[in-house]
Amino acid sequence: MSSFNLTGQKLHNAADAEAETVLLVLSVTADAVLLFQEEGYRGNSYFYHTGPNSHAYHVNVETEKRIYFRCVFYDKLKCWGRAILEIGGGYRQSSNHNHPPDPDFVAQRHFRQNVVNRVREGRYVGFAEILESERRNRRYSRRVRRIMTMRKLRNPMYRARIESFPPVPESLRDLTRLLLRDEWREKISCTVDKDDNLYCGSTTATDNSHHVAFISARMRRFASRISILQSDGTFRARPQVPHSAQVFVLVTPWRNVCIPIGWILMERRTIPAYRAVFQLLKEVCPDLNPSMPKYKAACGTFAGLLSRKPIN
Fold first, then answer.
1. Which residues form the FLYWCH-type domain (predicted)?
2. Fewer CB within 10 Å, N or C, the chain?
């Protein structure tokens, strides 16, 4: 019987070349028997194993003198495999399993955890690209890379992405409050290269409608060089929650193509709303002074609002 000491020492799993996570060694013995603790699927959950080709366990009951484990496949396979760790004593299997150990179990968990962690990073990368990138990692066996498919990982990837963002705001005012907080602004409106941020400000019109503008600092500097500013409103491609009337898009012709300058989420499409939006544009882009040859009839002629003359 092996003798165990709870050292709490942290090290990399040298026994499994496919492992990438740092494991907490619960038990160290003179004959080199290790019991590894690793993170489970849920928060503050763990599973335990003694290395490659071993069974894996969850903690079932914990007392002052013993920790009782049961097989991770207790529910799925109705496995009654059990193990006991004597605190300051030994570790032993107390009941047999109804299945052989899965040699790929730990590697599959590592694969899944690495994919989910990349999703939680908040990068604007599609699920398929993340999965294919991980499947190209040769630290995993061919069998593991074949098993871990999109069908198997789509739901955990979706949950991880949802959990990494705040709850959907109920109004544009709530969205503004989120964007004013540094931790959420960096996650919600950061540019792909993470060197800039799209959010530039919000405004409330005299009719109490609220509007949120997304123009990066780079595009605000570029706007000082343009001579033509065009705009359009899209009504289908807009969020239903929080409520918005349209996404107001500002574009300009540049080298034979039309490029977007910015987007404004508008709560209403009224004259006071457009006046408030153009007042905000004048504040965040003080050097913007274009001609506006085409404009939506719904908002009237507001080219004068972007001139350098004061707005009454």
1. 53-99
2. C
Query: How do strand 210-214 and strand 199-204 relate by DSSP bridges?
Result: antiparallel
Tell me what pLDDT residue 153 has: 93
Strand boundaries in the chain, DSSP class E: 9-12, 22-27, 35-39, 46-49, 56-62, 66-71, 82-86, 91-95, 199-204, 210-214, 230-234, 246-254, 257-266
- Minimal CA–CA distance to 211: which of 278, 273, 266? 266
Pairing of strands 82-86, 91-95: antiparallel
pLDDT for the residue numbered 277: 93
pLDDT of residue 122: 67
Q: Which helix (H) or strand (E) holds 110?
A: helix 105-120
Amino acid (one-letter) located at 90 = G
Contact (CB, 8 A) for 74 and 64: no
pLDDT score, position 9: 36
Residue 91 identity: Y
Query: Can you tell me whether residue 2 is helix, strand or coil?
Result: coil
State in Å, rounded, how far the first CA of the chain is from the last one.
88
- For the chain, list residues with pLDDT below 50: 1-25, 27-32, 294-301, 303, 307-312
- Exposure class string for 286-295: b at 16+ Cβ within 10 A, else e: eebbbeeeeb
Q: Coil, strand or helix: which one is 44? A: coil
| Residues in Cβ contact with 66 at an 8 Å cutoff, skipping those fewer than 6 apart | 84, 85, 86, 87
- Taking the whole predicted model, whether its pTM rises above 0.70 is answered as no
Query: Do 273 and 280 touch, CB atoms closer than 8 A?
Result: no
| Distance separating alpha carbons of residues 278 and 205, to the nearest angstrom | 11
Residues 6+ apart with CB under 8 A from 3: 29, 30, 89, 90
* Phi/psi at 153 (5° precision): -110, -5
